[in-house]
Amino acid sequence: MVNENEFFREATLRICGNLRIEEGLHACFRYISQHIPADRIYLERNEPDLEAMRILVDVARANDAVLPEPAPIVTFEDFGDNALTLWLRCYTDREYP
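Below the sequence we write its predicted structure tokens.
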């Protein structure tokens, strides 16, 4: 029986050890299948930055003062200390100071 830390290390090395994700997943699946019953492997991306951008656009669209055209847009501007700087740009039907 393989050590738990060694198992996860080897599985991770197989995924991350190849720039072609399909090949890395296939190698990881072959390794995992040797140790536990498995008939498939699945990889999901977590993109919290994109989710934050989507939320900003949704909030802008829900605001009655924001014009639908041109559409609100969010852009990544910079890396901050423990943060990303995102800019929301939208047009409104009123003036703000």
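The longest strand covers residues 73-80.
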